[in-house]
Design brief:
With about 260 residues, the chain is α+β, with helices and mostly antiparallel strands. It has two domains: about 220 residues, no CATH class; about 35 residues. It is about 40% helix and about 10% strand. It starts with a helix and ends in an 8-residue tail after the last helix.
Length: about 260
């Protein structure tokens, strides 16, 4: 479960959209059922941000195919044939789109019956995903926190359609954080869920402990971007030390 200190740390980011915790459940959560109109899976996140409610959704609430990538239903034959992606103009041929359905990350069928959403500020469960929607400079801080401890490379894995597969299923399956940019993806764009150019960042449960540790301990503004005299003096000292180290092996450092 997220500590209060972790919640306070995320709150300090002053995100334009509240961070959301998500849990995939077999048993029904002890929170109210989603009380909005049926919509696409990508819109539930925005509903949680707009209302600050904790709620769960079921397969019946989803009018798109987030339910497919969560293993709630089989791949529908007509959609999986690539016809929809072709008719939308996202692919040159149905076969091009069909390739996507050969490669989609899909969670184990029948293991998820409910999906719970809650603002991070009121989350009282162990999240399977932490979800962020933001712009710079907060996105810079969040992404650095995903690699500050582990050194993991930043990856953005996605596709023109079914972007929910890469943000909700892929991080859990791979154990990797993923990030995409709003405005690129057909469903998100068509439904006007968010303005274009924002970063959507998903942090899976495997990475949450080190991610929170990084947020709590790393410098949010790196020393090279701080203009106070103390920071500038320390950076100069570090650079001089690099040169001393380099001279010991007959080399030099060109960083400035």
């Amino acid at each position: 479960m997220l500590s209060q200190n972790a919640k306070d740390c995320i709150q300090r980011l002053e995100l334009p959209y509240p961070a959301v915790a998500i849990r995939m459940c077999f048993e029904k959560p002890e929170v109210p059922h989603y009380d909005g109109p049926p919509c696409a899976f990508c819109q539930f996140l925005k509903y949680a941000q707009d209302t600050s409610k904790s709620f769960y959704v079921t397969v019946e609430d989803d009018q798109c195919y987030g339910k497919m990538v969560l293993g709630m239903i089989d791949k529908p034959p007509v959609t999986a044939s690539g016809q929809a992606g072709y008719d939308f103009g996202c692919y040159q041929t149905p076969m091009g789109c069909r390739q996507l359905y050969q490669k989609l990350p899909i969670l184990e069928k029948g293991t998820i019956r409910y999906v719970q959403y809650a603002p991070v500020s009121t989350c009282d469960f162990d999240p399977d995903l932490l979800f962020f929607v933001t712009d710079l400079p907060q996105a810079d801080i969040l992404m650095r926190a995903t690699s500050w401890v582990s050194g993991d490379l930043w990856e953005s894995k996605s596709s023109p359609v079914i972007s929910c597969a890469w943000m909700y299923a892929y991080p859990i399956i791979s154990g990797k954080c993923n990030h995409i940019t709003t405005g690129f993806y057909h469903g998100l764009k068509r439904r006007k869920a968010y303005p274009a150019g924002l970063r959507m960042i998903a942090v899976p449960f495997q990475k949450i402990p080190e991610f929170i540790y990084a947020l709590e301990h790393m410098d949010w503004t790196l020393i090279a971007f701080r203009e106070d005299p103390e920071s500038q003096a320390e950076l100069t000292r570090c650079m001089e030390h690099w040169q001393e180290m380099a001279r010991e092996v007959g080399s030099h450092v060109d960083l400035r």
